[in-house]
Every structure is written in C-alpha cells, then in structure tokens.
Amino acid sequence: MKLARLACALLLWAATTSRGLFAQQLPVSPDSMLLRGVELRYVLPEPLFDNSPAAQPVKALYVNAWAFGSSKLAQLVRLADSTEINAFVVDVKDDTGCLLYPSEVKVAQDIGATRCVRTRDVQSRLDTLRAHDIYPIARIVVAKDPLLAEHRPKWSVQHTDGGLWRDRIGSAWVDAYNDSVWIYAAQLAEEAVRLGFAEVQFDYVRFPDEPKEAMALAIFAARRRGETQRAGVQAGIAILANRIQQLGVPVTFDIFGLTAATTGDLGIGQVWEDFITVADVVLPMVYPSHYYRGSYGLAWPNAEPYRVVRNALREAIERSRPFAKSATIRPYLQAFTLGRRKPRYTPHEIREQIRAAEELGITTWVLWNPRSVYQRDSLRPYRGSTVTGGAQ
Questions:
Q1: Whole-number CA gyration radius for the chain
Q2: pLDDT tens across 319-342, in order?
Q3: Domain range summary for the chain, segments of one domain joined by +
Q4: What Å distances lie between residue 321 and 259, 299, 334, CA to CA?
Q5: DSSP result, 213-256
Q6: N or C terminus: which one in the chain shows less Cβ crowding within 10 Å?
Q7: How large is the average pLDDT for residues 170-191?
Q8: Beta strand pairing status for 87-93 and 59-63?
C-alpha cells in the first residue's frame, strides 16, 4: 500500500485546460472545474497515519459529527473496547453540508462549510481511535448539500418557477449531473485521508427520492442531451473511484437496499451493477423499517428483521454472483426504532439482523442509529484487533 501511494503521488498530469484543476490550487473559477472525460492526477502529501487496511472484517458503528466531537466519543470508544466493534463511520460532511473539522478545501471555505465545524481537535480524536485499534472511516454526503446549493446556485437543482428546488422537508440539493459536485466531494475525501481516515464512504450518491410531481418542477441545468439519471450517477461515482483509489484506501458507497431487488434505477439513478463493479465496498441500507408492506410476503417487514435482511442480502449476493470481481457487500443494519408502531428495536432485533447476514457468509456490517446511541447487549463481548476495508 505504501508503495502504491508513493507511485500515485509521483504522477502529475497537466490538464489541457484550467477547468481540470483543483479550485484551491489555481485561481480558476470554482464554477468551471472539470470537463467530463478530462482526468487529472496530482501530487498528494503522505497521510499522517499508515492508512493501510489489515486483516479483519469491519464491524462498525455510525458516529455522527456531534458525537465524534464531544465527550460521547469516549463512551463509544469504551463500547468498542469491550465488544466486537472495531470501526467507526464518522461524518466528515453530513446532509447539512457542514464539515467535521476546519477544511483547507477552497470551495468549503468559500461557502462557509468551515464555519459550522463540529470539532477543532480532529487529529487528537483520530489519535484516540488509532490507540484503541478502531478503524476510522470518513462518511461524506454528496448530493444532499443545502449549504453548497445555497452558495453555488449554478451547481444546484433549480425550480421551474425560479430559485432553488427543494425537497419535501425544504432542503435544497445540488445537481448530480454537475461534475463539480463530485469533485468537491473527492477533494474533501482526499483531505480526510491525509488526516488519517483509512477509508472513504460516500452517501447520497443519487438524485432526490421525491414524488414524480415534485421532480417535474426540478431543473437539472448540467444535464447533457439524452443523459439519464443512471448515466449521471455512473459518471459521478467514476470520478470518485478514480480519484480515491489512487490514494490506496478503499472507496465505498452507501446505496438503497432496494437497489439489489429491482432492475430499474428506483428513479434516483442507482443500479446495483454500476456500484459493485467500481467500488471496493458497497453498503446496501437494508433497514426493515424502510420496506413496504408486503415486501418478501411480509405483512409488516419492520417486525421481521431477520427475514427482511436475509432476503435482501440474498438478492444482493445473487446480483453480484455473475461478476468475477465485485465489491464486498457490507450492509447497513437498523439500530433505531422508527415510528410508533411496534416493535421497538432492542438488542434482539439488532442481533437477528446480524445473524441473517452472517448465515449468508457476510461478516462485515455497520449499525446505523442517527443519534449514535447503541445498546451494549446488541454486540458480542469481544473484538479482534485491526480491520480491513474489503474482507468479507
């Protein structure tokens, strides 16, 4: 890994136009950063840690930026020390557009993303994770970024009546057809790796999941003639994969769990095969509460965590089987209760999801609770040491 990173760092390609260069490296307009098809490789300083993955499968907790930047981190570290947990997925950029730490990326500085950071001592907190053999994964939200949308309207989804288009909760989105959106995410990821994150995980790699009548009011100005949502997402994830893989760390994508069950793109541009053929790891979000009544013949899927997860992951495995080389499947599992209707998600419901995955041979997973609150009894009381981004 070290040799691979060194070789990548020695490659420097000059673009034929300034539109292919990093906005913070040359005084070019950040509204015109890249022409599709122009690839640029560049010199990166060595990360502050050895980011090389090791031998054990990831068993992770999602840790939001507030938890990572507060005293709650110590509680989560103690939980990892005493259980099978060996990794944390940490928000570097969440769906507000705010960042975990002060960034040197020019676009982030220009739009104010460095003025709403969650912690000022990210380095010491990463030191703590390393000291406890906890594998740090950087999560970066891509297309749902209201802060970027507000300050870069040319990069944003527009409304047919003028101004920014917004989703059902009033959030503005950036235009996933626009290469600059993906370049910004890549820049943040590269910075996170230099700080010591050992893996990069991209979320919201898609178009908005809104009703057709709402999407009919959305204008995607960067869309090329005849370009589909699927093609837009394909181009975007290729940009991310090409840039991040040069760093010698795994590149991973969070996608809807239903992606493995449908032959279409779910109206958001996500197709299973497009991700598993370019990523190191794909994380289908197979939360039972997110499946419709009647899915897999179940009257109330949320009450059947074992059956939902087993069926969903079996479909994912079958979709991947025809490919000689495909991404590791690392599911996101539900560690939260949604809605008033039973059941509450206790350690039993969480362990049932883990059991379903492991019976299919999938021994790597992430637990998701948006509040980063986890029950010790959901986890086995032992964990190994170092981990890998790709082992399954």
A1: 20
A2: 999 999 999 999 999 999 997 777
A3: 59-245
A4: 15, 29, 25
A5: HHHTTEE-TTPPTT--HHHHHHHHHHHHHHHHHTTTS-EEEEEE
A6: N
A7: 98
A8: parallel
CA-nearest of 286, 202, 205 to 252 is 202
The DSSP code sequence of 67-103 is HHTSTHHHHHHHHHHTSS--EEEEEEE-TTS-BSS--
Residue in the block written with tokens 């990831």: 58
Provide the token pair at 38: 């122009």
Contacts of 324 (CB under 8 A, 6+ apart): none
Give whole-number Cα distances, 269 to 59, 214, 245, 303, in Å.
28, 16, 22, 29
CATH of 59-245, one of 3.20.20.80, 3.20.20.150, 1.25.40.10, 3.90.1170.50: 3.20.20.80
ω into residue 343 within 30 of 0, thus cis? yes
CA separation for the pair 289, 271 (Å, rounded): 21
Under the banding of pLDDT at 50, 70 and 90, the label for residue 195 is very high
Query: Of how many residues is the chain composed?
Result: 392
Distance separating alpha carbons of residues 130 and 386, to the nearest angstrom: 10
Buried b (16+ CB within 10 A) or exposed e, 240-254: bbebbbbbbbbbbbb
Asked if 95 contacts 141 with a C-beta cutoff of 8 angstroms, the reply is: yes
Alpha carbon distance 13, 326 (integer Å): 29
Average pLDDT, the chain: 87
Q: 35: which 2 tokens?
A: 């022409």
Tell me the pLDDT tens digit for each residue of 252-298. Answer: 999 999 999 999 999 999 999 999 999 999 999 999 999 999 999 99
